[in-house]
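Recall from the previous chapter that SMILES is a line notation for molecules. Here it describes zinc ion.
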Amino acid sequence: MTAPGVVKIVEAEVPEPNSNQVQINVKRIGICGSDVHVWHGAHPFTSYPVIQGHEYCGIVSKIGADVTDICVGQLVTALPQEVCGECVPCRRGNWHLCDNLKVRGFQAPGCAQDYFVTEIDKVIVLPESFTLEQGAFIEPLAVASHSTSRAGLLRGANIAVIGAGTIGNFVGQMAQAKGAKVLIGDVSETRLGVARACGLEHVFNPEVDHLSKAADSVFGSEGLDIVFDCAGAQLSLDAAISSVNKGGTVLIVAVFDQKPQVDMAVVCESELNIIGTMMYHHNDYQQAVESLVAGDVKTTPLESEHFTLEEFQSAYEFIDQRASESMKVFIDLDSQL
Ligand SMILES: [Zn+2]
Ligand SMILES: [Zn+2]
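With both inputs in hand, we obtain:
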């Protein structure tokens, strides 16, 4: 992407892996909301030109001399985080909070290329039984794994998820798999239909019912313990803070375009916990893989549309036109050396 809204396909040398890298023949890329922000020139931490792509899978096509536990031909995905390893968060193992974090597809070159080279410690081997789409879904599933793990004990908890796009859907499914009773809301009936198809039976449309009313009808006097804001708007945050139980928890999973106002009087009076979440750890990728292997999370209902690499621009135009009717849009790559 040379400028917001401008995608160019260029010929490039096939990158060679150094001793501790692997070369991946990329097969599937998922486009997510953050990519769309870059397409619109509305991503605060991205400059142009940038090679996009951070949700993907592919086949290992070459390995470096020191790589021992990955083989050519294996289906893999990889974490897109490039970290310094030296700052305080890195030294404490919180690589996702690295002071010098660069995310591939935003501040470092992403995977939207036929051949992509990445460090061995970022690579996750996927089961052979996985579809290419499942492989590309591991990244957003890892977001759901991380945010649900930050919510505390979910077994027996009454939770609501605001926003039923890919991330909200996966948060709902993972929370349900961890034993929570889940209510999920979205203004798009299409996304609510996808949520139902994934086994999330309690849905609401915030344009019809307020969160507190929907929670009343599902949870009764027990109320709502935890809210995941996967929408990122003033209205969703207000609804979360005003509807959650006293002593309850609000997790911020979405990216807010604009700084919201927070009713701190209610936060204090009700002793609410407001928790931020940032991407994922390495083990969230493993958890994401395990949740698919175990059948805890359904992904097929989320698959919307496929485009080729050459049609990358059309894929964004499709998303712009049909945002509320589409879930995950994929780029299919089919080249082979
Ligand atoms: Zn993403
Ligand atoms: Zn660091």
